[in-house]
Design brief:
CATH architecture of one domain: 3-Layer(aba) Sandwich
Strand order of the largest sheet: 3-2-1-4-5-7-6
Structural class: alpha/beta
CATH class of one domain: Alpha Beta
Largest sheet: 7 strands, mixed
Distance between the termini: 45 Å
Shape: globular
Strand content: 25-35%
Radius of gyration: 19 Å
Number of helices: 11
CATH superfamily of one domain: Vaccinia Virus protein VP39
CATH topology of one domain: Rossmann fold
Helix content: 25-40%
Length: 263
């Protein structure tokens, strides 16, 4: 049976939960302030995964319905949100969820919006939002500038798996995505949203060889590689990090895009 790329994360939800980064209080505060919401405000999360963003937003007291299509990922999200009575996790794709029009003040998606059907996502988000409600989209990205590690990884990928390198996987993110401006244009072109705003939240992450490989192993492009092919790549990555002293620092930024539903 063919594996659906957007669902392969659920093959090892525990690894995903361990390896993937969470979301800072600073980012959550920025969303809350932009949306002018408070504890009890009704919110919808699209693609909750294991609850990395769910937990961060639940701490503010928002009333969150978190949608996740993978049963395995949703089960772990439920466990991670056990202490939050204000969170309900629903196993369903956003495209199939039947939400009441104007029922939410916030719709947010962390690392998931690109997996949602482009013909559905904005129209459905606008439908479920009240007038003036907020759409918040966020992604973690490597933020390379001129680090030598980037060049070494690029050479490694070109040598070991040029086909994967050509697909430009999100991590290690050797090429900056070209669609940043396209996403802003896409939101604006719907005519459904206004006040489109971009914010970035930088950080530096430190990885040992196994930690770096764990993060790679949660990326869909890497997961879809044949096991033997993936192992060769991962072994080479570990050797590279060992040659660099056993630990590397990687600059990251969380990219946040906010917009308001038009009246």
């Amino acid at each position: 049976m063919a594996r659906e790329q957007r669902l392969v994360f659920g093959e090892d939800p525990e690894l995903y939960d361990k390896a993937r980064a969470g979301y800072s209080e600073e980012l959550v505060d920025a969303v809350v302030q932009f949306a002018r919401i408070h504890a009890g405000s009704r919110s919808l999360e699209v693609g909750a995964g294991t609850g990395k963003a769910t937990v961060a937003f639940a701490r503010t007291g928002l009333d969150i319905t978190a949608l996740e299509p993978s049963r395995e990922m949703a089960a772990l999200a439920m466990r991670n949100c056990t202490n939050f009575e204000n969170v309900s996790v629903v196993v369903t794709p956003f495209e199939e969820w039947d939400g009441a029009p104007g029922s939410c003040e916030l719709v947010f998606a962390a690392q998931s919006w690109h997996w949602i059907d482009p013909g559905v996502r904005y129209r459905k988000a606008a439908n479920v939002l009240r007038e003036g409600g907020t759409l918040a989209l966020m992604w973690h990205r490597t933020n390379w500038s001129g680090e030598a590690l980037r060049g070494e990884l690029d050479e490694l990928y070109r040598r070991v798996d040029p086909e994967l390198r050509a697909r430009n996987p999100g991590f290690p993110g050797l090429v900056r995505p070209e669609d940043d401006g396209e996403l802003i244009d896409e939101i604006t072109a719907t005519g459904l949203f206004a006040d489109v705003t971009e914010l970035t939240f930088p950080r530096v992450d430190s990885f040992g060889g196994d930690e770096f490989v764990d993060l790679l192993a949660t990326q869909s492009d890497h997961r879809l590689l044949a096991p033997a092919r993936r192992q060769v790549l991962f072994d080479e990555v570990r050797r590279l990090i060992q040659r660099r002293g056993g630990r590397v620092e990687v600059p990251h930024a969380t990219w946040l895009v906010l917009a308001r539903r038009r009246s």
